[in-house]
Queue: 2 jobs
Job 1
Amino acid sequence: MKPNFKRPPLSLAEVEPQTPRTLVERAYLGLRHDVICGKLAPGERLRVEHLKDQYEVGAGTLREALSLLVSDALVTSEGQRGFRVAPISLTDLEDLTNTRVMLETEALRQSIRRGDAQWEAALVQSYERLSQTEIDLAAAGSELWERRNKLFHEALIAGFDSDWSKYLLSILHRHAERYRNIAWRLTAAHSSGRDVHREHEDIFRAAIARQDARAALALEAHIRLTHEVMRQQASPTELTQPPDVSGHN
Ligand SMILES: [Zn+2]
């Protein structure tokens, strides 16, 4: 499968939520948001007849949007039997984590070696914005933190000119975000003795100092910690239960 770069822009700064240009895109972004935040639960059957009213589109448009989510691996297609939200599991999270470490640390090393002054300036800006959110996370809210966290990670690897890496990493990021949302109460990313701001600071300082090996190690530790915390705290059954969306936000 070749990435379709005509899709909703992947590297476009998501400082503000994207504005959809077509009905398919609007339905796609709406569904994607609801899958990622856990409103549509892992394993849940997606009934076109029901969802088309909810997302205010026709059945054909909704099916097209669901097909796009299939290629993002957020939805599975069951042929004649329709669509389901992709399930989650600790095994999947482990695979996701390992793949992300592999791709993102190499992209970071390359980016640090090649990044110019413009890359550096954009990185500083995204780090400062993320830091503002991390000073008072409760006030900023997890959605804003997620957006700025994503932008910071994109800025880190922006110096590496590889559409494939950026495309694949953007998909992996969304899956990681879904795990964080679904298991927010488990990971309690910001209350389990973990200092996420410090982790970001370590990566940032090494990147600006052009220490690619040190930056890659800090990034790997950062990516692996979420998985570790979840692995230690979640029993396998907890990760297959529908999420408690009522407690989110
Ligand atoms: Zn991060």
Job 2
Amino acid sequence: MPRTTRTATTRRTSHRGNEGSLFKPQGDDEVVPLQASKNTGSARDFFPQRISLPQLRAAAKYCRGCDLYCNATQTVFGEGAARAPVMFVGEQPGDQEDRAGKPFVGPSGQLLDAVLEEVGIDRKHDVFVTNAVKHFKFEPRGKRRVHSKPSAREVAACRPWLEAEIDVVKPKMIVCLGATAAQSLLGSAFRVTKHRGEVIEDQPWAPWMLATYHPSALLRMPDEAMKERARAEFRDDMKKVARQIGQLSR
Ligand code: SF4
């Protein structure tokens, strides 16, 4: 597994706030937009002046870093323990997450919760969950909104939010759920199919990283035998995560 360098695709955002922010602070956790803006090409343009999870979450509500804000209901920022040892990064919010404004509350989140409980990872105290892209991208099909994969440009535009979440939470381990999250942090050449379940150590984001299936992929698999095998592999990967973060309390 080649080491990811801080190139244009993996450069981390400065931990400082955005002095040229399009927002002004309003109390501890609120910001108000100074000017309306069309898609600027980067979430970085919408950073608050002070960097904290509440300030970032509040600023992200007004993000126009790409066009995905146009059709989605709201920004779905990461949630969880502010100093969680493990951060799970998915692709983007789904239909239910978009409506609720919270990540991993739909069927994928329920599957993730069940497996975390099974392997002894406490989602409330040990976990922060987020996505590579903070708005739901979909295609309308009748009354349904069908998930649509975000483009590389949209993932890159949104990555400053993810980088800021990582900088603030400082997880010991980052688990990338699916190819979009893995490629956002580990480079476009990274293949989950090749490196799934490996504990990766030489990356700038966290001491340990691991990439595995996105729970939604497990739910969608049409073949029962394949689904059973993939779920077992996913459980094994989560056991590995539990063992890694278990080392921290020894
Ligand atoms: S997807 Fe990300 S970059 Fe695009 S508008 Fe939403 S929060 Fe901003």
